[in-house]
């Protein structure tokens, strides 16, 4: 038997929301790194927190491609 469907909605408690963001952010960045390594893919991820702080990941080839297009 499969899992039940969950409702995706904004977390009202700001502390819980920040903790969830931090955990999800690190998981997403880890998956992006794994994808770039395992599949030899060009991956770029940009994340902005609710406070406006920037978090990013880019495989080395993406960085080179972006620099060459400037």
Automatic annotation (TrEMBL):
Example GO molecular function: protein dimerization activity
Annotated Gene3D superfamilies: Transcription factor, MADS-box
MADS-box domain segment(s): 1-61
Subcellular location per the Swiss-Prot or TrEMBL entry: Nucleus
Single Gene Ontology BP annotation: positive regulation of transcription by RNA polymerase II
InterPro entries xref list: MADS-box/MEF2_TF, MEF2-like_N, TF_MADSbox, TF_MADSbox_sf
GO cellular component, one term: nucleus
Key words, A-Z: DNA-binding, Nucleus, Transcription, Transcription regulation
Keyword Nucleotidyltransferase in record: no
Entry-linked CDD domains: MADS_MEF2_like
Name of the protein in question: MADS-box domain-containing protein
Protein source organism: Punica granatum (Pomegranate)
